[in-house]
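Q: What would this chain look like folded?
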Amino acid sequence: MTDVAIAGRRTLDVTSDAARARIRSRYRAEARFKAYGLIAIGLTAVFLIVVLTDIVMKGIPAFTQNWLQLEVKVDPAEIDPQGTKDPAVVRSGDFALLVRNALRAQFPNVTDRAGRRQLDGLLSSGAPDVLRERVVADPALIGQTVRVPVLLSDDADLYFKGIGTRITQVPGRGTATPSGTEGNVTIRTSADDFSASLLGVKREISERARAERAEAARLRQFEGRARARVQELGPQLSAARASGNAQRIASLEGELNKATADAEGLGQKAKELEDSAAALQARFDNKSGAEELTGNLPSLLVAINGGLVKVLTVGETEVSGTVLLPLSSAAPAAPGAWDIRTFHTPESNRRVNDREVAWLEALKARGLVESRFNWQFFTSGDSREPELAGIRGALVGSALTLFVTLILCLPIGVAGAIYLEEFAPKNRLTEVIEVNINNLAAVPSIVFGLLGLAVFLNFFGLPRSAPLVGGLVLALLVLPTIIIAARAALKAVPPSIKEAALGVGASHQQAIFHHVLPLAMPGIMTGTIIGMAHALGETAPLLMIGMVAFIVEPALSVTDAATVLPVQIYLWSDLPEIAFQAKTAAAIIVLLAFLFVMNGTAIFLRRRFERRW
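A: My prediction, written as structure tokens:
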């Protein structure tokens, strides 16, 4: 049979080499497309995992908090001198002094003013709060000694969480013999236990020498340019003097003096750096020579015989330093019974110095440090002290703002969708309205913030930083999303249901509200929840209407000043304290948890109630 024999139709060529090549090419193209899709999904998953892991790792420390368990004597002279046991009088007592005295009693050898100030700094400004509440609730505790949890400062809390510096602890291999128990001591070992520490110091010295040589070379280059400028200005000044141009002479003399001063200054500074680098290099070349540990080098502490020694000079088999915690005896310590602790971040760059480290380690060794779940993070408002800051005010503000958003956008959005889909005439006006609704869904959120600032605050004079205004702005932001989702849900209901209702005598309104709307409600609720989740994560429009206030107490109504969780995250992320980094990540985890719950609820509703026609 030929092509003509089958009524002129073109035959399908699937057997020739060219046809098989085309088929193989199509299969390869399809395989490449699938591979590209898998690669895109894989990269997205990797990025998401990395981001979430980073947030979780940074935020987990904020969900725990370290406390001290102290025996505090409730001195009546400081709490209730008159013995009235009036709650108002008791509450105004100096509980902070009682807590400080209890901590100082743990270290009676700390008698200097600077030491006591540093010791008091280990406690939070909210340390006496628990004691105050207990004594106010039970005045019979006045005059007694009470074991009470005392909140540590953010720096001490971060130290126990291992944040701020990397600490290496190495047990001693030889027998260590201290020369005394207090003051300045020397510790000698039978092995070269300190050789690794000495080598680390030598490396730091070598790096400093290299950096100073590089800086000196850079300054020499500038010095050369300055001296070249001096050589260039000399003939010009001579020519100007010959011509008698006074203005030109004055200008060139000023430039010459400045260039000469710059050259001499740069040369002097370069010489100082070169001399310093040479001295450092000489120290590095002397491999076995002892080295002095300065504040810009890693700290070295030796824990021996129940005490702690801060090393000031280190050699291969001998160190000298000052005692931070008194040793129980000067007897030799057997191998493994003592250790060397290296704090890799220099003391000058740490929030907790070596003396404070010694006190914290002593408190931990006595079993007085306790880690608890940080309920204050959820029950406290914002604070300038990281250990006292919480998200309660932001959570309440978010709840009030979303409440205003929901009660405004849900009925208006659903009513608008029903009218446009079922009742509005199909003319140019409705087409313009539909196009504008779709366009509003893509407008940047900050534009709605500018609208709220201009209309609700400046024109209507509504209270600034209030959930009422925030809810109005977010309602405008979410309304297009809800209208679009509600119209899509109404369209998904088969027309036969409405037609059947109309056929048995129902009015158009009855058919819509009694039959179509109930069946579309799962889709409408899904769109509403997604829209509310979108509103929960918005920050820019709320910043524009002033919801960036420092809120300690949660708002009691929609007109009180408040903030929301995304804005709280924004405020904390801009603060310099390290502890606020963990607070920021923890608040992000809470926000993500709410978003996951809301999106999960939307998926559940869709799968549970959605009908497929």
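Residues 1-6 have pLDDT under 50 and may be disordered.
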